[in-house]
Amino acid sequence: MSAAMTTFARDQDGHATLGGTRLSTLLEQAHVPTPAYVYDLDGIERAASQLKQAFGSRRHLIAYAMKANGAGSILRTLRDAGTGVCLVSGGEMKVALGAGILPGRMVISGVAKADWEIDMAISQGLYAIQVESLEELARIAGRARSLGRQARVGLRINPGVEIESHSHIATGHDAAKFGIPRADVSAAFERIDASEWLVSVGVSTHVGSMLPTPKAYVESATAVCEIARQRLASGGTLEYMNFGGGFGIDYGPQAADAPTEFAQAAVTLAAKHGLDELELVVEPGRSLVGPYGMLVASVRQGKESPARRWLMIDAGMNDLLRPALYGAFHRIEPLERLPGTKEWRVVGPICESSDDFGTHALGELPERVVVRDTGAYGFVMASEYNGRALPSEVFTKNGTVVHTSPSPGVDFWVERRLQA
Fold first, then answer.
1. Which of 43, 214, 275, 349 might form a disulfide with 265, Cβ 3.0–4.6 angstroms?
2. What is the pTM of this model?
3. For 308-335, how does the pLDDT look when each residue is reduced to its tens digit (9 = 90+)?
4. What is the rounded CA–CA span in Å between residue 233 and residue 241?
């Protein structure tokens, strides 16, 4: 990944900066305690603009995968940069609508959509409800009939493509719960065409997350192109092809190709199959927000023995679940000086052995640390486990704080539990 795809840096004194301003200064401006997520909205806007430019004159929709980070400040930034959204719940739909994103620039996926979510998608006139099974088609047709309004549906296919990634984020293989097997695609189109309440508008796929190169992306997208060509050749209707997302980012251990490389590969593939008349939809999430968010934590204490050395911070797996859930690695560095050579096993306060962020070369015991590249799947996965408050969020633009979402505090959790 190129250096242009992150706004984290160090100033001449070694202090960690985001968007050109010291993170410590931003926290002072925000008046929030640690742990706190800090985001650079300018970096997010530039990432979206660069991806959009990579499509050139090709008609397309960047449907940001909102599950990566659904903060209103981020959604409004991406809206202004020209993106739509990919949703996976009715709650996300309500937030996206509240952020001013037009329904015609939204697609919704999910293997077990609730009736009210389907009803809302139909009533709002979403670009497409992406169907994940033959059984779901009957449910959507029934809801459309009850509303007296046609439903725009796309088929999310399962391309049967294996990727080298953690099993929890590989979604395009035969054993995954996601998508319609290719063997059932013809039957799915037949059911759509036979129903007066369903309109066929697209074909989509999503092979999984953290793809380092476009290779597997193109392989799964090829299946979409083949199905789209067959559909159009038979006289059926289609408006878009959706190749999904999953563009990886550089968390430290390995680099990943820039999102623009995936966009250019998608444009080339669509042209190769003679499908330029269809709108090209992509669903990036992590790559638009991940490198532009940092989690700042305070060090509570060190713990040393002849065999081991731990650094205990006030952020835990309830604040950042990825390491415990996926075995993911995030670079952790001192906030106010450069890393050193002395290694520490960084752990949080949660009463679980999995509350472990790995070993990092930090030097002498720091007062605060920054956990890098946490703009995606950080706050959205946070919980109040062990009676801990949700972390704060700080949003910056032009090197200054423009909005904060403070932690509700521990007392909020206490009151709700006592009322339960």
1. 214
2. 0.94
3. 999 999 999 999 999 999 899 999 999 9
4. 15
